[in-house]
Amino acid sequence: MKEYWNDNDFSRNTRHKKRKRHTPHGFTLILCCCLTAVILAFGLTVNHIPPAADTQPDAHLSENIVTNTDFDTSLAADEQSITDETAWCLILVNKWNHIPEDYEADFTELANGQLVDTRIYPALQEMLDAARSDNVYPVVVSGYRTVEKQQSLMSEKIAAYKAEGYSDAAAVFKAETWVAVPGTSEHQLGIAVDINADGIRSTGEEVYKWLDQNSYKFGFIRRYPADKTEITGVIDEPWHYRYVGIDAATEIYNQGICLEEYLNKIN
Ligand SMILES: [Zn+2]
Description:
Layout: H1 2-21, H2 29-46, H3 59-90, E1 107-109, E2 115-117, H4 121-133, E3 138-142, H5 147-163, H6 168-178, E4 192-197, H7 204-214, E5 220-224, H8 229-232, E6 237-243, H9 246-255, H10 259-266
Antiparallel strand pairs: 1-2, 3-4, 4-6, 5-6
Zinc ion binds near residues 142, 187, 192, 194 and 240.
C-alpha cells in the first residue's frame, strides 16, 4: 500500500506541474511573484519525487498494477498460508520431479538412529504405538537419507548387478528399477520411511498388511502400490510409507489412488 500512496502523491504533484504550464502570461507582477513562489515550493517537492512524469508514461497503469497486485497478493497470501500448511507433506518427488536443491528440514532421531522429518515424528510414533497395541511389531529400517547415502545405495546396487555379469548399462538400468536415482528419492525428504517387521514377534506380511489397512489414519500412505507402478515409476514396495497428512491419506486410501493421481485431482 505504501507504493500506492506514493503514486497518489506523485499524481497530485504531476497535476500541479501541468497547472503551472497552463498559467497565462499576462497577469500582474504580484500574481507572477506569487506563482513563482508557489512554483518554487512545488519545485522543492518535485525534487523528492523519485520518478519524473515524462519518464513514466505508464504511471497510471503501474498504479493499477500495484493496486491489483496488493489485492491479489493478499489473496495469494491466504492461499499460500493454506498451501504452506500442507505443501511440505504433499511435495511430489519421483523420477520426473526432483527434490528442490534448496530443500531443508529439521530431523528427529529415532531410537535406532534413523532420522525422520521432525514434523512427521509424532504421527509416526503414534502409528507404531497403535500397531504394537494390535500385537504387530514394525521397525523403521530406513528414514531420511542424504544424497550421498542415496548415491552409495545406487552404486552398491550397480556393483551387485555387474558382479552378476550384467554390462555397465544393463547394471545401471536394473539398479534404477530398485533404487531411486539420487535427487528423486522421497527418503531424501525425510518424510518417507521403510518399515519392516521386527522379525521376532511379527512377520513382514503381518506388518505390511497392518500398515496397508491402518496407516492412512495417521497420515501415511503406501506410496508404491503394485497396480500403480506405471504412474509412480516405482515397483511394488509394501514397506515404503510416505507422510501426506490425514486428509490426503484418507482420500488416497478410500479412492484407491496414488499420490500422483491425488495431486492431479486437487490441482
Ligand atoms: Zn523406501
